[in-house]
Write a structure and sequence with these properties.
heterodimer, A: 379 residues, mainly alpha, ABC transporter involved in vitamin B12 uptake, BtuC, 2 strands, 70% helix, B: 265 residues, alpha/beta, Rossmann fold, 2 domains, 6-stranded mixed beta sheet
Chain lengths: 379, 265
Amino acid sequence: MKQYSLNIGMVLSAILVLTAAHLGWIDNYIQIVLMAVGINIIMAASLNLINGNMGEFTCGHAGFMCVGAYVSSLISVYLFGSKFGDPQLPIGAVFIAFPIILLIGGAVAAVSSLLVSVPSFKTRDDYLAIISLAVNYMIISLLENMDTIITFIASKYAKLFNLPDPGNIEIIGGSRGFQGMKDTVWAMIDVFDGPWMLFWVILVAGFTVWIIRRFIGSTYGKGVNAICQDEVAAEIMSVNTNKVKIINFMVAAGLAGCAGGLYAHVYGYVNPQSFGILKSTEAMVMVYLGGMGSLSGAVISAILFTALLEILRSQAIIDFLLSPATFLFPDWEPSAGVVKWVVIPLMLVIVMQFRPEGIMGNRELSDVFPKLKKFYRFK
Amino acid sequence: MDPKQPTPDNSPVLEIRGMTQRFGGLKAVSGFNVSLMPNQLTGLIGPNGAGKTTVFNLSSGFYQPTEGAIFVNGQPTAGLKPHKVTSMGIARTFQNIRLWNDMTVLDNIRVAQHYWLKYGFFSSVFRTRSYKEREAQITKEAEELLDVFDLRQFADETPKNLPYGTQRKLEIARALSTHPKLLMLDEPAAGLNSADVLELIRLIRWIHDNFDVSIWMIEHHMDVVMELCSQIKVIDFGETIAEGTPDEVRTHPAVITAYLGDDTI
């Protein structure tokens, strides 16, 4: 009983948060922040699988998030939205369909991770980082130009079979972004009025931590750690390193894809540019802040980091923090958007300088506080 | 005899025929032949840079030979990845110890059992019955192995905190946990003091007596090789220069020339 107390506690607090949101005790802003925390937990924990546990260095994680976001948005709008004609499914089906939509987005993102995992057989470190960065840019620019590509193929096809020219086809809207996913959320709210997206985010974040902990805890998943510590020894000691790498990349990218699907439905709007290098960097900062290879570190740093981002978004706090500087330089008007991107890299520099192993190192919470082992086995 | 086919009675655990390895213009190994029978203790010696470790790297599938064929238990290993070759029954240790230093000693042994993990990612996440059975089996085997190697008290330590001799022992235990038919030891006595070397000799002899395994070792400590091995092969500049029993090799003129130099100036 005692060893399940942490699980029970987490479930109870999730129910508490959802009830509070449902009854309106916490306002929409706090709910949005909580959802951002959840999405960032998924991103940090899944990137930690690659950069922490496997010791590869990839910095294009937002690319997979982008794939998941677009795939699940397209399906969701097709099934429940009015953008591509009438909704295909009755709104009652949304509670079964939505998790499946998220999973499909994750699955497509997992397949797209082959673009990075196959080169990772031969390269490591800086070279893999460059490849992953390139993949991130490729995905973004593919989505930005998707409509043009589809138009081109359709007109060629029409010409080939003497059909009338279809003209400009606009499905995903290129760099202007894609929207309409809110219809799915409205469908949920029509059936039962509640904080549905918060529920899904909490569910998927919990699911992510659960999957990763179980995968890494198994002998199969420990092969990932073996690759990190000595790849040659792993291969010689019968670990199928290529397969383990593919699986590990797929799990990480698939979870990032689910995070993307949630992101798209929380904000109701996606744009290829929002999954650029800045988003990837955010995920990386969370991983390095939390500690490489520490799942609880990734979760803790995702919470801290998102909270910090929200604090830095407030112009009042920025003005207060920088009042000595603005006193000296009265002409300078610091804006929240700029200061954020000074503080985050600075934080990374400071962490790397004074605590290169991150907040938790590669330890879990139970290693830092051994008494917790009574309540929960972290490893 | 067709060089692409293994010998018909397929008794040798490892058979290498006419193996040549070139690195660019350098011929690291040329025309290497060996046939290792079960439960044999064989030595591979030679001066520095003779190509001994290259022979091991080729045998374990880490490199693919430029020419020649390798058979493990009568099966050709051409084109196979090292992890496949290991699961066919070859295990090796490394000249410089390559343990997974941030994993516990028990996990070091357990991860080396990947070759017979029959479950995949989904079983590991949903903890299916096949997962539980296999994990229990693996843990049991690993603990038994630690017991017979007298390493049980270190099970929860990380290898980097162990003394050097114990790390060597653990690496050999890890190699044995893959149930090999042939154990290849690459300079097991390197970096050990004389007391540790005596213990290593005892350990290797004990492994040879108690496990159903053939041992092939590279070693620079001549006393270890001469004491343990029944057959010794000497190579220099990639060429086999002598082979035979320890006494034959010790007095072989080519070996003396390779180690001590020529008397012509």
